[in-house]
Structures are given as structure tokens and as C-alpha cells.
Design a protein that fits this description.
heterotetramer; A alpha/beta (145); B alpha/beta (322); C alpha+beta (339); D alpha/beta (276); B: 322 residues; alpha/beta; 3 domains; three-stranded antiparallel beta sheet; 13 helices; 35% helix; globular; D: alpha/beta; Elongation Factor Tu (Ef-tu), domain 3; seven-stranded mixed beta sheet; 7 helices
């Protein structure tokens, strides 16, 4: 008999160095649990994230990609997250247009003080993506061997 | 109209106002015109053409041509002036080196649509009012002009010339086109259907780069897809991901700069409706951040180099669609 | 000579596809394309498919080898597999001729085994062109649209398909499906050939002047001042090279899959600026040189190396597909021609 | 079992890396069981690759008379070469070859007085043929070597030149550098002028290799002092992917540099487009 393995998604979280990355740190020091599926990539600002980063993450096996930045108005570089918000809004909408499940992408604002929010967001996102199953629509078969 | 344009080109050249004239050159058949830089009156009288198949948008050639010495005259259809204006805005063309002549356009024809109507061996085409008389190896046929119109012209967004030095004919108006209808139809589908649709379309891509190289907004000196150091340079559609990646990123790079001139779909040898991807971005921008037409207003900030503190969140954008 | 009623073709197709993979041109929304036969598919009447038939032997992307890298050590894995037997049904005379040109490159010593592997496992059923297009100029290169080469040549006449074997493989093919075929005489086919020849005679581009493209005139043609004018509006895309049945340039690249390196080859185009780009130099700096290379290669260099066989078969795909309608027919007429 | 595929490479191991100049290193390559990967003719090339980084063509700098290993002198220049410069001995690479025609050492060169003119890394392909001629000394006449570089530090194989070539009878080595240096007592000046100053006997067969500008002026200089084009050889380089005349990029007229070259005589080159 074959035992069905529980699907464990791979989640890539791009975290702004000044807030969400510290938020992730805080959730760790506060011993708040969030799944190990989340791989954090630290970026200097949410605005640093190029649409290509998101696509590449999917290509390389991510099942969901989340971008975390400072709350609007709190950007370390004053306006970076405003630009990031526009870009991601358009990109996510385009991915949806091409038929890629919209739940696989997310943008969240997490400050350095919001350790709990970080953990909660990640828990929720992992759960959502687990429900969706493996990313099949934006995968690169060559990377699956 | 062809004679009027020839005369205009000749007079500009003879008066010494310009040194070269950028227009369309006659081909072997009626429909296969090549963009060409005319340097002599003799050349203009022999082979400058303007008719229903003078479809190529000439504005991108100005980027290269204005690097050379001297003035160049260019003939621009209404939609071409949007591209021209956008290129001026991006400082890709020095305005003082170009003499832009606006010319009227009542829609360009698509030879593929005529072929699809079952006409083979087309050797010449004559425009007779709203009908086309087509000579083929297998006899004479007629086609309604409206059945041969290019998609972008069926859904023409504007007959207005944005920038010009002089205008031939009278000024048109921006039109209320149904250009977003096809995008809306896709939006109404389920994600599964949309995915299947794009798989079918994009899997035909042969990565010939015609869309990129013809696009008046794609004027980077070195494209990210040609740069090995970018890490995403892949020359071939080696996997379905590569196809998606190329077209998403290419469209994203021209967000807010794409004037919806439709060259990408016109030149695609595999007839992929690439304009739908660009139009989706345009439609989203209009809905999320207010109506914006690239190329229309040289002083306006582009949507991606601008922001509003109360912009919507990606999640709200999805909700809005429902 | 054998024949089969067109209405019975589906039976023949099913019979072929039982033992071998069958590919045939099928009409799609975007034009005719070769594809694997599925129940219900019908043979397209289009003169040409969008993509050429070179894909069968020289696909756009092909994996060549894999490498396992561990520290300083590397292991090479040969991933070649014997190709399955397959049938191409309905290739036109020009495409069939292109196989010969590709052979002269890929089967020349040292043999390209990736190509040879597929080439050896194919049976080609060619189909005469009943309705040549205005873009066709195969007769320029001595190709007869009415008598295509291949293993079996076929003609559609009235409501019947006539077939004759040209090779042993072709004989085997016809005898394997003998139950569905009946004997036929050649008179109708001869008449059809005349008909097609008459149409070809009326084609606007038939018999372009190519005789002067000789090795002796290599430098003369190379230095022709007309190249500048011809190439000036070329946008440097790869459309002509990718739809061309004889363009065979390729690139070899590595892809890091995350658990090994995949070495693949893919079509490349001499029209691209990075084609000859080296770390320290670029011998073909402008589009003029790249444009000239493509046509010089087809019209002068290739024949100089292959007993006068031109690297073009006159299928007309580039005429129909070029974004700016600059093409080999215009080049032939301009370079060294009477104009 | 399928037929052997020319494009499938073999494994090579880098056993020794010698630093020649600030930007040139010489790599010694053997098979994993310590043998020489293949036999070659002076002037031929081989494809070296690091999977994931790229593949590139290099001329073999060791002489065919060396039975133990192959050597490649490589200047740090692009992607593959930069990676090669970063590795340590013991690194595996992939290797395939040999490719190209090589120098006519067993035909046109026999019995001739030879003049080698090299600039910078251009010595790499010539080192193979020079050492071959030294090995079969009695087959060839007098040997003259003119070699120049930007500076003393940029002279590739300096030790071998001083310790071996200079001391051998019948070999005249003429070194030059572009700009004066305090520790340099030899000639200063560019190679083409130096060749003209030295004024060689026009009965010699000349071989040029170096940057295009050096080749151009040295060729003119040699012709000025009476050399004919059919006495002068050079070796070309061009971007290559396959090495066997199929991928199309090193096509030059009706020739493929990888197959019909890289060694050409100047009277042959005259009949080819100058896209190299």
C-alpha cells in the first residue's frame, strides 16, 4: 500500500532588511512558530524585488512567493514600498491573467515590531499554498529532476 | 494619398529641409513593404508607397537614424505618433533632427486575414472603396475591407496625431474603441481556462525576438535577455516556463510605456496575440491608477515611476475584479 | 503506383499510427503545423506549414548531455536514446529537399549523432503541391513541386491520393499498408504534373536569377554596395532563420537545474548581435554584416562547399513571415542582378 | 551502443597551474588516469569547458612531442577564462578535440628558415610549433623569434624563453616591450617596427600571431621588406560552439575557422571576407 505523503510546499519570502526581516527575527526570539517551509531572502528594500525574482523563485521550485516590506509611509528609503506596491499589484494581476493561481503570490506589510504578525502571516500563507498543492503552472520541469 | 506623400517627400528633400525621408518601400507584391530611408527624388518616385499595407510603425527607426548627421523626415500614422511621442519623452530621439509629417490612416490590412479567407497565390490587391479586388494565380477575388482589417485597426484607439510638424489631411479624434473587450473576455474565464488559453498561445513561441525588436518601447541598448550576466538569458523556449517568463518580463518592462501600437502582434510569425498581455497591463493601470495613455502627454509621470499613498493593495486589486 | 480514396485516408493514418508515430500537417487557428496524428485530424491543404519540417531532425531545443558536479569532480552523462520510428506524411518538395541540405552539414564527418539518430528512423511521404503560393520559388533551385523526393511521393488528384515508392523504405511502407491501397496507373499523375508545372510557370518569383552566385564571385558579391541598403531596415530578429528549413546554426548552452547541469543546444541566428560576440572582439559589428552573412552563406558559401547546391529551397516562409518584408527573393534580385 | 558523439566531451583534470603574467596562466590537463587526452598537431585547438559556466576554444600550447599532458596558456578575458583563473589544481574540466588544421610542420615548413612573430598572448599557439621545431631541429633551417608584449611582466613563458630558447644554437630570440622599464635592458618598441628594423632575409617562412592591429602592421612591414603573402601564415580566432563546422558561427566565406583553419596563409585570407 502506498502511503500518501503530505505535501510540503516551498515558500519563498522576500523580506525587507529594515522591517520584516527584523520582524521574522522577533518572532523567532519570541518563540512564535512558523513553518520551516518558508525560505527567507533578505533584500535591502521591498522595492529591490524585481518581477524576475518572483518568477525565478517559481521556476526554481517555489510553490508560493510572498513579499514583505515596511508599512506604507515607513519605508527606510521614504518611498520604496510605494513603488513596490504598484509593481507587485500589476505583476500579480498579470500572473492571475495568465492563469496562475492568485493565492500563490502575496504582498504583506510587516514592521520590525510585528513578530506575531509575521508568524501569523506565514502560517496562513503556508496553509493556503498547501491547500493549492504543488505549483504546476509556473514551474520549470528541468528543475524538478 | 500615395502621390500626396510622395510630393511632400520630394518637396521636403528639394527644399533642403531634410536630408533623408523615412517611409515605406514597394515590395514584390502589393503587401510586402519594407521601411526604407529614401535619399533621392528618383528613389522616391520609383518606390515610395503608401496604402493599406503600409503597416510598419516607423518611429523606432528614428532612434538609430537620428544618430546620423542631418535632418530626417518621417511619415507617421496616428498611432505611430504615440510611439514617437513616447520615445521623445524618454529622450531616445532628438526632436530637432526629425521633421514629422502626420498622415491619415483609415486602418491597415492584414495579409494573413486575407489568406485565412482562403485566398491563395495573391499577386496584387487593389482597394476599391470598401472592397479589395485581389488578383491571385488562381483568378480574381474580392474581399470586404472590413474582413481584412488588422486587429489593432479594428480596435483603433485614436485617429489623433499627438506630435507632428505638419499634417496631411485633417486631424482625427481619439476613439472609443473596444480594445479591452478581448481582455475582459479572458478575465471572465476561470483560471484554468485562462491558463489553457495562454499555454496554447505561448507554446507556439519560437523566441525569434521579432516582438521585442519591432517594439518601439523596447529600445534598450542591451536587452536583459541578451545579457549572459543577467542570469536569465535563455535563447530558446527550452521549457514552458521560459516562454511565460520571456513574455511576462518583456511586457512588464514596457508597462506604462507601451502605447498599444500593436507591432508585437503584427510581426509575430506564430500569430500569438501578444497585444493582449500589454493591454491587460494598460487596462489594469487605467482601473487601478486612473486612465493613462502612454505617449499622449509628455509631461505626465508614468504609472510605475509614480505612486499615491492610497494606492490599492494587490489583494484589493483581485477583489475589484470580482 | 498505388492509390487510396481521400475518404479512406483516416483509415490509413490510423494504420500507420498503430506501429509508428505519424506526423502530418494539420490546420490550426494560426495556420498549418506538423503535429502528431490524433484521431480525427485531417491533412491540411496549406502549401506550407508555419514552421518548417527541420524540427523533426533538428529541434529548436535539444538536450545533449548532463553533468554531475561534485566539488572539483565532474561526471559526464550520455543521455542519448535511440529514436523511435516515425513517419512524416505530407512534406512538400521544398521541405524534403531541405533534408538533403541539412544532411550535407550534419552528416558530414564528424557525424552529428543526435541528428543522424532521428534521420535514420524516419519514413518521408512527400506530397506534390496542387496550389503553389505566390511566395514559392522552389523552381529557382531546381526543385520540382510536382515531383517531390522522399521515400514515397504522393499526389492528390480529384478525390484520390496517388502514391509511388522512391526508396526501399518507401516500398516497405506501401507494402505494409497494401491492404488499404489499390493499384493505379500513372496517366492521371502525369497529367497532374503537367498542371502543376503550368501553375509554377505562372508564379511571379519562379526562376530568380541565381546563376551568378558562384564561388568565383565571392568577394565581388561580398563587397556589393547594395548590402547596406538592403540591410538598413532589418530589425535583427531571428524570424527568417527560425522559419527557414535549411538554417542550421545552433548554440550550445548549459542550464543549471539545481541538481546538475544540463547541456542543451538550441537554434541560433546569425542575425543576432551576440552570434559572434567574443569576450574581446566582435567581427560582425553591425546588422549589415550579419544580414550579409545570412544571404552570402545561403547563396555563395554553401554552394561553394557543396557542389553548387544552394542553401535555400525557395519555400517562401521568410517571405511571408519577415516583419519588414525583406527577404531572400529581394536580395537575389538586387545583388549582382540586372537591377 | 550508439556511435561516439563528437560534441560529447571527455573529462580532463587540471594537474598544474603556472602563473605566467598578471593575467595569463598556463594549465596542464591530463585524463583522470593521468594520460595525455589526445594527440595533436601544432596549431590545433581544443574545447575546454566547465559545466554551468561555459565552453570555449583554446589553442594547445604544449608541443605534440610532449607525451604526458596538454598545456593551455589562457588569458583572463571573459566568462570561462575568468573561472579557469579562479580554480586550483585537481579541478575537473571537460575537454574535446583536437580541432582545426594546425601548422604545415610536415609539409610547407620542412627545410625552411622560420620566422615567428608574436605579440602578447599570441605566443600561445606559436609555442607549440616552436617547441615542435626545436625537437625536430634538423628538419628546419634557422629559427627567428620576435616576441613583444606590453611590459616585461606580460611576456608569456619568459623563463622558458630565457632559459631554453635563447641558449639554443640556431635560434635567435628578439624580445621587445612597448614601454621602457628600469629593469629591462632589451629593445623597446612595437613589434611591427621591430620586425622592420631587424630586416629579415626574405627567403624565410613567417608565422604571425597576436592582436589584430599587430598582425595588420607586421604584415605590411614584412611585405615592405620583400616578403610575399604566400610566405606568411597566421592563426585566426572566432567565436565557436561546436568546433566541427556545424554550428555556423566561425564561418568565413566558404571556410569554417574551426575546421579549415585556424591556420591560414595570407594569400588564402585575401580571398576571404575580412570578418575576423
Amino acid at each position: 500500500m502506498q502511503i500518501e505523503e503530505k505535501f510540503e510546499p516551498t515558500i519563498v519570502a522576500f523580506c525587507c532588511n529594515w522591517c520584516s526581516y527584523a520582524g521574522a527575527d522577533l518572532s523567532g526570539t519570541n518563540r512564535l512558530q512558523y513553518p520551516a517551509n518558508v525560505k527567507i531572502i533578505r533584500v535591502p528594500c521591498s522595492c529591490r524585488v524585481n518581477p524576475m525574482f518572483i518568477l525565478r523563485a517559481f521556476q526554481r521550485g517555489a510553490d508560493g512567493v510572498i513579499l514583505c516590506g515596511c508599512h506604507p509611509g515607513d519605508c527606510h528609503y521614504t518611498t520604496g514600498n510605494y513603488y513596490a506596491r504598484r509593481r507587485m499589484t500589476l505583476l500579480f494581476s498579470m500572473l492571475d491573467f495568465l492563469g496562475i493561481e492568485r493565492e500563490r503570490t502575496r504582498l504583506e506589510w510587516v514592521s520590525a515590531a510585528e513578530g506575531a504578525k509575521f508568524a501569523a502571516t506565514m502560517n496562513d500563507f503556508v496553509e493556503t499554498v498547501t491547500r493549492l498543492g504543488k505549483n504546476r503552472r509556473l514551474e520549470d520541469l528541468r528543475c524538478n529532476k | 494619398m500615395q502621390q500626396v506623400i510622395r510630393d511632400k517627400a520630394l518637396s521636403l528633400l528639394e527644399a533642403g529641409k531634410v536630408d533623408r525621408v523615412l517611409a515605406w518601400k514597394e515590395g514584390e507584391f502589393f503587401y510586402d513593404q519594407t521601411p526604407h530611408v529614401f535619399k533621392t527624388a528618383e528613389e522616391i518616385n520609383r518606390s515610395l508607397v503608401y496604402n493599406g499595407f503600409s503597416a510598419a510603425n516607423l518611429s523606432k527607426y528614428l532612434v538609430k537614424e537620428t544618430l546620423k548627421d542631418g535632418m530626417i523626415a518621417v511619415f507617421l500614422k496616428p498611432c505611430d505618433t504615440y510611439s514617437f511621442s513616447q520615445l521623445l519623452k524618454e529622450h531616445r530621439i532628438p526632436r530637432e533632427k526629425v521633421w514629422a509629417v502626420g498622415i491619415p490612416c483609415d486602418g491597415k490590412l492584414d495579409i494573413d486575414r486575407i489568406r485565412k479567407a482562403g485566398l491563395r497565390g495573391i499577386t496584387s490587391i487593389r482597394e476599391d472603396g470598401d472592397r479589395l479586388s485581389v488578383s491571385t494565380i488562381y483568378g480574381e477575388k474580392t474581399v470586404a475591407k472590413s474582413d481584412a482589417l488588422a486587429e489593432r485597426c479594428e480596435n483603433c484607439k485614436s485617429r489623433k496625431h499627438i506630435v507632428y510638424d505638419e499634417l496631411i489631411g485633417s486631424e482625427g479624434e481619439a476613439l472609443d474603441s473596444g480594445r479591452f473587450d478581448a481582455v475582459e473576455a479572458l478575465e471572465k474565464m476561470s483560471p484554468e481556462e485562462r491558463f489553457a488559453f495562454w499555454q496554447k498561445e505561448l507554446s507556439r513561441c519560437i523566441r525569434c525576438n521579432a516582438c521585442r525588436n519591432a517594439c518601439p518601447a523596447c529600445t534598450c541598448e542591451k536587452c536583459v535577455f541578451d545579457n549572459p550576466a543577467s542570469g536569465i538569458e535563455s535563447k530558446a523556449p527550452a521549457s514552458s516556463f521560459e516562454e511565460q517568463n520571456f513574455h511576462i518580463i518583456r511586457a512588464f518592462h514596457v508597462v506604462g510605456r507601451c502605447t498599444d501600437c500593436g507591432e508585437c502582434s503584427r510581426v509575430c510569425p506564430q500569430s500569438i496575440p501578444l497585444h493582449l498581455i500589454n493591454r491587460k497591463f494598460i487596462k489594469d493601470i487605467n482601473e487601478f491608477y486612473g486612465t493613462y495613455q502612454a505617449g499622449e502627454n509628455p509631461d505626465e509621470r508614468a504609472p510605475l515611476t509614480n505612486f499615491d499613498k492610497d494606492d490599492m493593495e494587490p489583494a484589493d486589486a483581485f477583489r475589484k475584479g470580482e | 503506383m498505388k492509390k487510396i480514396a481521400l475518404q479512406n485516408l483516416p483509415k490509413l493514418f490510423s494504420a500507420i499510427s498503430e506501429s509508428k508515430a505519424l506526423y502530418l500537417p494539420v490546420d490550426t487557428e494560426s495556420g498549418a503545423e506538423f503535429r502528431l496524428y490524433r484521431e480525427g485530424d485531417t491533412l491540411s491543404e496549406a502549401c506550407n506549414t508555419n514552421r518548417s519540417a527541420k524540427d523533426f531532425f533538428f529541434p529548436q531545443v535539444e538536450d545533449m548531455a548532463e553533468f554531475k558536479v561534485e566539488g572539483k569532480k565532474i561526471e559526464v552523462l550520455d543521455i542519448r536514446r535511440e529514436s523511435e520510428e516515425f513517419v512524416i506524411f505530407g512534406a512538400r518538395a521544398c521541405d524534403v529537399k531541405s533534408f538533403e541540405i541539412l544532411d550535407s552539414v550534419f552528416l558530414a564527418d564528424p557525424v552529428d549523432t543526435y541528428y543522424k539518430n532521428r534521420r535514420e528512423h524516419v519514413t518521408v511521404i512527400s506530397l506534390a503541391c496542387n496550389f503553389p503560393e505566390e511566395t514559392c520559388f522552389c523552381s529557382t533551385f531546381g526543385i520540382d513541386a510536382a515531383s517531390p523526393a522522399g521515400d514515397v511521393a504522393a499526389w492528390i488528384i480529384d478525390e484520390e491520393l496517388y502514391m509511388t515508392a522512391l526508396t526501399e523504405k518507401g516500398e516497405a511502407f506501401l507494402s505494409a499498408h497494401a491492404a488499404l491501397l489499390s493499384d493505379a496507373d500513372e496517366s492521371k499523375v502525369d497529367k497532374k504534373k503537367e498542371e502543376i508545372a503550368e501553375i509554377c510557370h505562372r508564379l511571379p518569383l519562379q526562376n530568380l536569377p541565381v546563376e551568378h552566385f558562384k564561388a568565383e564571385k565571392l568577394m565581388e558579391h561580398f563587397n556589393d554596395p547594395k548590402w547596406a541598403e538592403l540591410s538598413q531596415s532589418c530589425i535583427g530578429c531571428g524570424t527568417c532563420t527560425f522559419v527557414c528549413p535549411t538554417c542550421q546554426c545552433f548554440d550550445i548552452r548549459d542550464f543549471d537545474t539545481g541538481n546538475g547541469i544540463q547541456r542543451y543546444r538550441c537554434w541560433d541566428s546569425c542575425m543576432y548581435s551576440d552570434f559572434t560576440q567574443m569576450a574581446a572582439a566582435q567581427p560582425r559589428l553591425t546588422q549589415l554584416e550579419r544580414f550579409r552573412q545570412r544571404f552570402m552563406h545561403k547563396l555563395v558559401y554553401h554552394p561553394a562547399n557543396h557542389e553548387g547546391t544552394y542553401g535555400c529551397v525557395g519555400c517562401g516562409r521568410c517571405l511571408a513571415k519577415c516583419p519588414i518584408s525583406m527577404n531572400i527573393a529581394k536580395v537575389i534580385k538586387e545583388i549582382g542582378g540586372e537591377k | 551502443m550508439m556511435q561516439k558523439e563528437a560534441l560529447l566531451p571527455e573529462i580532463g583534470v587540471i594537474t598544474d597551474i603556472r602563473i605566467d603574467t598578471p593575467d595569463v596562466k598556463t594549465f596542464r590537463v591530463v585524463t583522470p588516469d593521468g594520460k595525455k587526452p589526445f594527440l595533436h598537431v601544432p596549431g590545433q585547438c581544443a574545447m575546454l569547458s566547465i559545466p554551468g559556466v561555459g565552453e570555449a576554444l583554446f589553442s594547445i600550447t604544449s608541443s605534440p612531442t610532449n607525451t604526458e599532458f596538454l598545456e593551455f596558456s589562457i588569458k583572463k578575458c571573459g566568462c570561462v577564462t575568468s573561472f579557469l583563473h579562479s580554480i586550483e589544481p585537481g579541478q575537473y574540466v571537460t575537454i574535446r578535440g583536437p580541432y582545426g588544421n594546425g601548422f604545415p610542420v610536415e609539409s610547407a615548413f620542412l627545410g625552411k628558415d622560420l620566422l615567428f612573430v608574436a605579440g602578447g598572448i599570441g605566443l600561445a599557439p606559436l609555442r607549440s610549433v616552436i617547441n615542435y621545431c626545436r625537437h625536430y631541429r634538423d628538419k628546419y633551417g634557422k629559427i627567428d623569434i620576435v616576441y613583444g608584449s606590453r611590459s616585461m611582466q606580460d611576456l608569456v613563458d619568459y623563463r622558458e624563453i630565457i632559459d631554453e630558447w635563447c641558449k639554443e644554437e640556431g635560434i635567435n630570440v628578439h624580445l621587445t616591450i612597448d614601454r621602457e622599464q628600469p629593469e629591462w635592458s632589451g629593445h623597446v618598441g612595437f613589434v611591427p617596427n621591430f620586425v622592420k628594423e631587424l630586416g629579415f632575409d626574405t627567403g624565410k617562412t613567417a608565422v604571425l600571431c597576436g592582436p589584430p592591429i599587430m598582425i595588420k602592421f607586421t604584415l605590411a612591414g614584412l611585405q615592405e621588406i620583400g616578403f610575399q603573402k604566400d610566405q606568411i601564415y597566421t592563426t585566426l580566432e572566432m567565436r565557436m560552439k561546436c568546433g566541427i563546422g556545424k554550428c555556423g558561427r566561425c564561418n568565413l566565406g566558404d571556410k569554417f575557422i574551426c575546421k579549415d583553419g585556424p591556420v591560414f596563409r595570407f594569400d588564402q585570407l585575401e580571398e576571404l571576407p575580412d570578418e575576423y
